[in-house]
Amino acid sequence: MPYFDAASAAPLHPVARQALLASLDEGWADPARLYREGRRARLLLDAAREAAAEAVGCRPDELVFTPSGTRALHDGIAGALAGRRRTGRHLVVSAVEHSAVLHSAAALEAAGGSFTEVAVDRGGRVAPGAYAAALRPDTALAALQSANHEVGTVQPVAEAAEECRAAGVPLLVDAAQSLAWGPVEAGWSLLTASAHKWGGPAGVGLLAVRKGVRFAPQGPADERESGRSPGFPDLPAIVAAAASLRAVRQEAATEGARLRALVARIRERVPALVPDVEVVGDPARRLPHLVTFSCLYVDGETLLHALDRAGFSVSSGSSCTSSTLAPSHVLQAMGVLSEGNVRVSLPAGTAEEDVERFLDVLPGVVASVRRQLGAPAAPEPVSRTASELVIDSLGKRCPIPVIELAKSIGDVPVGGLVTVLSDDEAARLDIPAWCGMREQEYVGERPAERGTAYVVRRRT
Amino acid sequence: MPYFDAASAAPLHPVARQALLASLDEGWADPARLYREGRRARLLLDAAREAAAEAVGCRPDELVFTPSGTRALHDGIAGALAGRRRTGRHLVVSAVEHSAVLHSAAALEAAGGSFTEVAVDRGGRVAPGAYAAALRPDTALAALQSANHEVGTVQPVAEAAEECRAAGVPLLVDAAQSLAWGPVEAGWSLLTASAHKWGGPAGVGLLAVRKGVRFAPQGPADERESGRSPGFPDLPAIVAAAASLRAVRQEAATEGARLRALVARIRERVPALVPDVEVVGDPARRLPHLVTFSCLYVDGETLLHALDRAGFSVSSGSSCTSSTLAPSHVLQAMGVLSEGNVRVSLPAGTAEEDVERFLDVLPGVVASVRRQLGAPAAPEPVSRTASELVIDSLGKRCPIPVIELAKSIGDVPVGGLVTVLSDDEAARLDIPAWCGMREQEYVGERPAERGTAYVVRRRT
């Protein structure tokens, strides 16, 4: 049963499993104790720290283990901000960071600080100079992911780091998605990662803080991990994390090339196999194993369930699959279609046949979901009954507003206007995206009595 | 090789190991995902929560898993304080709480709040009425351990809870040391625990918050664990923690009685076998598996190393074994001897022979450490050369100041004064304790040009 959601959590790497089992008997005692069980635990911890530091590209004493990537981000950002409180309380982040970064930014704002979100292009990438432009005299910290977790776009870390360095601002790099594939480009001041993304166990994050970077751990004091990560360390998991990071790095070049070819196949063939699909993310500067596309007239949750029934485990940034009813902030920031969004992230070892089978199955699954939703068959019917039309899609969830727009556009003459009333947040993204895909003109939006009015001019 | 430091970390229980292995293959995926691997993970998580909640004595939706007992305390205290910020920013704790609680109190104070430490008796126990007396109109939270981690004294949780209830203040109970032996007495509002203390894996803490208790999680938002514990959950560890808690509970009555008898043997025989030993902690109301004693004229670190060489892994609250150079705050609060402090905490399954062997070995080890330090053989020499004497022990670490006092007391006549100058924090505890053990009069202390002057009047 192919599992294509490695970007959420990778299955345990065999080396991780082996190391975990081996250290269950040696690694349960307190490494701070002086007796033999404690000394053995300390040796394991030290060795794991050295191995992980080597893979990260830092000194062992710059690296601490945290209970998760999320905690590494929360504690790393809080500590770096506090370390430079005298400079100011402003934080710069990209608009497509992991929610742990954006929630840290929101927490800073709630506590009286402020933050700036750096915009990305349609491929999800930060522009050169964008960080330089966002830095202010009171900026305490900037944060940028090494690669995006939803669309796979690799960020210009070295350039952003240089811009930050020139301004004397430390840069924190969230390397959660890329660390398996190689070290982060030079120039970072703080780095975070998460073991279960590379096939290590859950329960282990990394937080590296370069010597000389001001850092003031927040929250109650604790002696563990240089005072930067409170709580008794989960040693068997830490040992497994370090061992598996080393293992995936040894396989990275070969496996990366293999998965990159499989992903290229998906990127190329999905738009050919499935009508009205937008493949999103930077086409060239990307992670080897991850591809994301959105399907017009498709409801993400229904599509995921249908793919699950067909035996494929994938993820989605569509609004319908989250509890917030808003499409993924990443797709929003990119301004791309969010309907029927599918993220395929291949774990190491993914078989070519499984990818082929996915490509076989996908067109039928999408067509069936579209049929269920009553999506219009392309091309849309060409009739004309009025020069202007208002479609009331209030209370209807994505992708229904877009489907109703598509079905009605033919009812106005070329040059005529269709106004869609919708209170679904995804419409803001998906109606302009539909216009782009259908070569219709998106005029704009205005507040309506209920929800928002989206205005489209028929062009073809 | 007998390991007698279960109170730091218990070796992995066989059931924990089994459950961990079994769930490595089923429990790596994200339980928030809709596909089959995610659903399987969710089932495991739900089942573990139900089992742990049953052992704790709460509803499953009142319980979240945290990455450690320390994080449960940090996050639980911060959330409970924030939930009642309108009432005030005052916290009540006992003086013998775990450092994670005391550090939380210090963090509160640093942020502008305040706290009161409730004193304990010489047995380490909070007095009835002491919590009631410490509560104020602006008290947001009170915290009390179920049992002390260094001396094993069981606290009057039900009484303190009733005092808090009457004042409308929630009580947080740190059950880290006792949860293996049974549920906490009724009346608590929040409860924390740590799996590696009961033979579960590291990486799992428990935080239970009763329905109706105001709780506002602090730090950046996160959807996991009802918003109360950020980060991807370590499911195999959580499953192992829950399974082993159930297992140790089933064994608790039998194993508790067996260990209680072994501990009683140590409590009774150590003072008979080793001269000048003080067994500390409440003699009756205590954990079944833990006993602590202090040895006059002995340096804790040397004693621990000697016991380690003899094959015994034990812990110590003596100043010489910690990085802070201050004796354990627990021994300080109890006002008992801290020199040569040894905590023996027996893991489940400890063999009677190992305890017997410990009792065989201990007298020789202590005698040898005392010889190395030049400790006086009892009784101290009786000569008299001056009516008053000043001993300069500045720069000398415990137990040297006490040893020098003991060697010199005979140099003044009965009724004469000996003043010890010392800059070792432990002297404040150990000189009065020595006076008590030797029936000499402890007159008091005063600041000296360097360090502190401790004045003793010879009585015998």
Based on the model shown, name its key terms.
3 domains, alpha/beta, 460 residues, 14 strands, homodimer, seven-stranded mixed sheet, Aspartate Aminotransferase, domain 2
Structure, described:
- The structure is a homodimer of 460-residue chains.
- In chain A, the strands form three sheets. Chain A has a seven-stranded mixed beta sheet with strand order 1-7-6-5-4-2-3, with helices on both faces. In chain A, strands 11-12-14-13 form a four-stranded mixed beta sheet, covered by helices on one side.
- The mean pLDDT of chain A is 94.
- The first copy, chain A, is built from twelve helices and 14 strands.
- With 460 residues, chain A is of the alpha/beta class.
- In chain A, helix 1 runs antiparallel to helix 7 and helix 7 crosses helix 10.
- Chains A and B meet through helix 1, helix 2, helix 3, helix 4 and helix 7 of A and helix 1, helix 2, helix 3, helix 4 and helix 7 of B.
- Chains A, B: It comes from Streptomyces telluris.
- Chains A, B: Belongs to the class-V pyridoxal-phosphate-dependent aminotransferase family. NifS/IscS subfamily.
- Chains A, B: InterPro entries: Aminotrans_V_dom, Cysteine_dSase, PyrdxlP-dep_Trfase, PyrdxlP-dep_Trfase_major, PyrdxlP-dep_Trfase_small, TusA-like, TusA-like_sf.
Q: Largest interface, with Cβ-Cβ < 8 Å?
A: A-B, 66 and 66 residues
Give the biggest sheet of chain A. 7 strands, mixed
Structural class by helix and strand composition of chain A = alpha/beta
How would you write the strand order of the largest sheet of chain A? 1-7-6-5-4-2-3
Level of helix content of chain A?
A: 25-40%
